[in-house]
TrEMBL record:
Signal sequence residues: none
Protein name (record): HAD family hydrolase
GO molecular function: hydrolase activity
Top-level taxon of the source organism: Bacteria
Pfam families, per the entry: Hydrolase (PF00702)
InterPro entries associated with the record: HAD-like_sf, HAD-SF_hydro_IA, HAD_sf, S-2-haloacid_dehalogenase
Species this chain originates from: Luteimonas soli
EC nos: 3.1.3.-
Keyword match Cell membrane: no
Keywords: Hydrolase
Primary enzyme class: hydrolase
Amino acid sequence: MSFPVRAITLDLDDTLWPFAPIGERIERVLDAWMREHSPATALRFPAAAMRELRERVFSENPQLAHDLGALRLLTLEHALRESGGDPALAGAAYEAFYEARNQVECYPDAIDALARIAARVPVAAVTNGNADLDRIGLGHHFRFNLGPREHGSAKPEASIFHAACMRLGCAPGEVLHVGDHIEMDVLGAARAGLRSCWIDRESRDWPHDDIRPDLHFDTLSALADWLDAASPRLPKAATA
């Protein structure tokens, strides 16, 4: 299949890098930080208990569902308060968490493929996570990073895709959204009128008959190859 692509919106977690190692690192870093700065909190909330607390705080605060940072900070405040620690330490604990959250190890193909793609068309991150592309060192490849905190709602809501398209200066049908998640990325983008590319590194079966991705690759490099072969050089979209 070949069609023109004027811009790309790109998911981050589990598309550019695997998230599971990040989650494990976050738990280790937070536990070590609490052991040093608030031992009672570390004792009361080891990793499994902290996960349970996080899930409780998230479920009790649906009004913050679009702001993962605020929910994480609130979780830390609860952990400190409920363990007899000092809630004022939550900000420093959050910074330890956020530093660990942005220590990513990209998939082997991802950085080179991203550079190739960004050299051809404008790329914007559209993510439900809260990664900081500048901290990670990849911000120069992106026109902008749009997440739920900035937009007010998350994928698969059509509005976040449409907002990205507006900032790129493109109609939805001219934008290809690329991601790993079947519902959040592929179905969300397709229902919003964008083209969709499923990056499936796990050889999963596609579970839907009514909507299918326009493109389906097992690496980001394969998408870069497709763009080189199938997409003509088009005028660049407007910058935000």
